[in-house]
Amino acid sequence: MRRVVRGFWGPRKESIPELAGRWKTMLDALPALLPAAGSAPAGQPWTWTEHHGSGRPTQLRPDEAELGAALQADHDSPQTSDGAGLSLTSRGGPGWEIEISGRGGGESEYVTQAVVLTVLSPDGAEVPEAALLALIADVWQPDIGDVTDDDLLDALEDDAGYDYTLSQLCVGRLGYLSPGRAALVPDGVGVAREEPAGEGVLLDIAPPGDIEAVVDAYVRLRDAGALEPLPRPMNRTYL
Length: 239
Description:
The chain is an alpha+beta fold and 239 residues long. It is 30% helix and 22% strand. Helix 1 runs antiparallel to helix 3 and helix 4 crosses helix 6 (211-224).
C-alpha cells in the first residue's frame, strides 16, 4: 500500500544549520516508528540514499554535518531558486520503502514549502499514520498537513471538485491544522487527537477505507474557510 504524509507552509527564512537540525530530528525518529522500512539493525541509524537533480544517487548518513553539507550543496546549486531541500529514500524488508522530499528555509512569495513522506508497505501492514503526521507537525511546524493516498485524492477530485493544480488544499483521513485554521473547524468534523508539540490540532477525520467521510469533511472544512490557501503573493507562514 502507498500512503503519503505531508506538511505545507509559507515563507520562513531559516539557516542551513536550522534546516539540518529539523531533518536530523525527523530522520532520527523514523527507525522507531517504521522499523521494517530500513536496512540497519535495530537501534542503529539508517543510511539514506540521496537523489540529485543530476548525477547518480549517493549515500547519506543522518548526522548534522552530512545533512548540512547536502543542504548547502542544494542551496548553492544553480537549479535552486529558494531555500534548500533533500530527496531521500530507504528500503527495508520485502515490500517496505520510504521516500522523503522536502524544501524549507525559503522566502518565496509564490512557492509553498513542504515535506512529503511516502510510505510503501505490504498490504495489511501496520503503519503509525498519526504518529508520522505528528512527527512532521512537531518538527516542521507547518500551516497544514494530512495523511492521504491515491484513492482518497481521486475521490476528492471526482466527488468534491478538488483540484491540486489550482493550489487548493485538502485533508485526508488525518489532518493537521495550524491554530488559525483549527479555529475555523466546524463542530462535528473530526476528533482532535493528542496535540503535537506545537499549537496546532491533529484531527482524526475517518478510518482507513471510509472515503465518503473524508469527502464530507473536506467539503465542510473548505466551506468553513479552514482550507483556504495562503494568499498570493504569500506574506506569512501560516493562515
